[in-house]
Structure formats: C-alpha cells, structure tokens
Amino acid sequence: MSAASFASTGGPPAIPHLDVDPFAIGFFADPFPTHDVLRDAGPVVYLDKWNVYGVARYAEVHAVLNDPMTFCSSRGVGLSDFKKEKPWRPPSLILEADPPAHTRTRAVLSRVLSPTVMKQVRDRFAAAAEERVDLLLEKRSFDAIADLAEAYPLSIFPDALGLRPEGREHLIPYASLVFNAFGPPNQLRQEAIERSAPHQAYIAEQCQRENLAPGGFGACIHARVDEGEITATEAPLLVRSLLSAGLDTTVNGIGAAVYCLARFPDQWQRLRDDPTLARNAFEEAVRFESPVQTFFRTTTREVELGGAVIGEGEKVLMFLGAANRDPRRWDKPDTYDITRRTSGHVGFGSGIHMCVGQLVARLEGEVMLSALARRIAKIEITGEPKRRFNNTLRGLDSLPVTITPA
Ligand code: OVV
C-alpha cells in the first residue's frame, strides 16, 4: 500500500470496533439485524469481545476464502490459535491444513466423494427418501427436524460410510461438539467439551479399518493406503472428517430447506409445479439459511484487506451467512427464491477448502425435496419452531408440521 493513497487523511482508515458477540444466544436467535450492522460498519471490523477481526461483506469473505496462504487454516478455523493453544482434538488433516499438506488429503476425499461415486449411491439415497416420505404420509403430523431432517440422513449416511449399527446415537452429539468447539470458550463450547469423552471414544473406534464395511466411504479411504497415497495413520483421521462434517451439516441443510418451503408457500407451489427445481431449491436454502454460519482463518503475514491493515497472527472471523445475504452482491437477499442464480454463494465455502462433501449434501437435498414435492400437496407449520443453538451451525431443534397428501 502506497503512503500516497492516504495522503489526505495521513493514514489508513480506522477499523471500526464493535462490541457485538456473534456467539451469544441472543445473536443466534436473530442474527440478521446484527449482520446488517457488521456489513455496514465497514469492509473489516474488529470484535472487542473476542479480539478478532471480522468480515461480513461478500467481497471480503470471498477474498479471504480465496487467499488460503495469507489466511491460513493450519492454525485452526475456530477462535483458538493452534500456535498458541493445544487443540481440543488432533487437528483435521484436511480442514485444519494448508498446502502442500492439504493437497494430498483433499484429493483423497475428493475422489471418495466424486461424481462417479454419487452415481453409485444415487438410487439408494432416492429410494430412502421415498420411504421416508411414505412414513411421513402415514403420520400426517410430525416434527420436521427429528422425523425428517435428522431421520433421513441417519437412514443413509452411516450406512454409506460403512458404520456398524451399534453406537450411532453418538454421531449427532459428536458433530454438534465439533461445531461448538470452533467457537469461543463460552458455555456452549465448554460444556460440549466436558461431555465429549464417550463421543470421542466412539468416533476413534469407528475410524479403524476393521470397523468399516467393504464398499463404504470409510473403506474407500482406507483403500488409498494400499495405493500409497496416504499412510495407515492418516486414514482413520480422514474417516473422522466425514464423521465430523458429513451428518449434522446435511441435517441442518435439509432442515433449512423444509423450513423455507413451509414458510414460503409460493415457492413450495413452484417446486410442486416443477420438481426438477429441487436441486436449486436446496442450494437456495443453503444460501438463505447458511447452516454453517462462520469459520475463522489466521493471518500468516501483515495483509491489506478492504483498505484495512491486519497484522500477522490475527484471527479473522468470516460471516458466511452475512455474505450470503449481502445486498452489495445479491438482489433481494432476504427473499427465498428457488429459481435464483445461486452460484457464488459461500454456504459451502469457496476456493481450495470448499466443502469436499458438497455432492453428497446436494444429492441428499435434491432427492428429498423432489420426493416431498411429488407426493405432498401442502406443508403447514402447526407449532412454534424451536431453535437449536450452536457456535457454528444454524438450525432448528423442532419444527411441528402437518402435511396433506398430493
Ligand atoms: C468442514 C469440517 C467441519 C468439521 C470437521 C471437519 C471438517 C474435519 O475435517 O474434521
């Protein structure tokens, strides 16, 4: 940055300090007014509560995501800086890694969750969605979170991974712990970690090669050891990544989509008229609700961002949900529109770390919304939706609905 650019003011623009706590229950209950404040305060803000920088506008969130060597992941993508604090679990070999280490592990998971593999599981995932809708049509009134958003992924994903039937009740609590642990040392994080031992023990055991059924995603990861792409020590940790990030995310993604379609009957009608819109309706729900709300990066050098200068070793909090509704980037950002051109949304991230499981997520979302659209005439919310609070994930705990058959 040249000194001349600031000749009239004598220095770079001051970074606004805000006393917002983006990990407080009150913020989670309704983040949208505060997202506006964060975006409007400037391209980069400083959050005094946690001593971190924040970016909430699309342009800066996108810029940070796409400069992974300056805004690194290897020092953790939560508030904790792994260079200063011991991580609560051994770091992920993909999420919490930078190139060149990241490149090889990413390639492995990318191939395990490839378009070819999606072709192989598609019919099974679609049949399970139809079966779930059969069951819901028998009930008529049910909880769209427990009985749909959780029940559907639980009916396919653990089997697709090759997990044994015993102990699966640990999966959602473990994922919830992982996503709470990205946050600051608040009650959500501390209580989750205090209660984590049984969930961690279950996960560690299921990551072992002998506990993963042949043909599943887990066995496919271990098979890469035989090809010399990864070591026998790395394989279980890569399975752990799927167990950490593969279930609660799709639960909240499908939950978001059903919540959108239940609240916006005109969009539900458009989906019923043309069920081929299912995949975009799911994608738009990921933009609109942003089930993964935030991730951090850590600066590896002094860097200029949006006219502000950030020193080395600073945490930068990216508000993915705010970027996905930034009026500087999106027309009618607060409208759920199933025909919107959603490409460019950062609900799955962007750049080298962009969700490696995105094809699995989209497949689940598409086949479930397609089944709902073809077989259900009406979805009515019949009780107060209850929110589930997590330091990273946005979603509901309960959504009472009544459906009418087509
Ligand atoms: C994207 C994500 C979330 C949580 C955990 C992981 C990845 C992991 O790699 O363990």
What is this entry, summarized?
The protein has 406 residues and is an alpha+beta fold. It has helices at 25-29, 32-41, 58-65, 101-112, 115-139, 145-161, 171-181, 187-194, 197-206, 217-226, 234-245, 248-263, 265-273, 278-289, 320-323, 358-375, and strands at residues 17-18, 45-47, 52-55, 71-72, 141-143, 294-299, 303-305, 308-310, 315-319, 376-381, 386-388, 395-398, 400-405.
Task: Report on this structure.
The protein has 406 residues and is α+β, with helices and mostly antiparallel strands. Helix 5 (115-139) packs parallel to helix 16 (358-375) and helix 10 packs antiparallel against helix 11. The strands form four sheets. A six-stranded mixed beta sheet has the order 1-2-3-9-6-4, with helices on both faces. Strands 5-13-10 form a three-stranded antiparallel beta sheet. A two-stranded antiparallel sheet has the order 7-8. The protein has one domain (3-405): Cytochrome p450. A hairpin with a 2-residue loop joins strand 7 and strand 8. Mean pLDDT is 97; it is low at 1-5. It contains 16 helices and 13 strands. It has helices at residues 25-29, 32-41, 58-65, 101-112, 115-139, 145-161, 171-181, 187-194, 197-206, 217-226, 234-245, 248-263, 265-273, 278-289, 320-323, 358-375, and strands at residues 17-18, 45-47, 52-55, 71-72, 141-143, 294-299, 303-305, 308-310, 315-319, 376-381, 386-388, 395-398, 400-405. The relative contact order is 0.18. The protein binds 3-methylbenzoic acid.
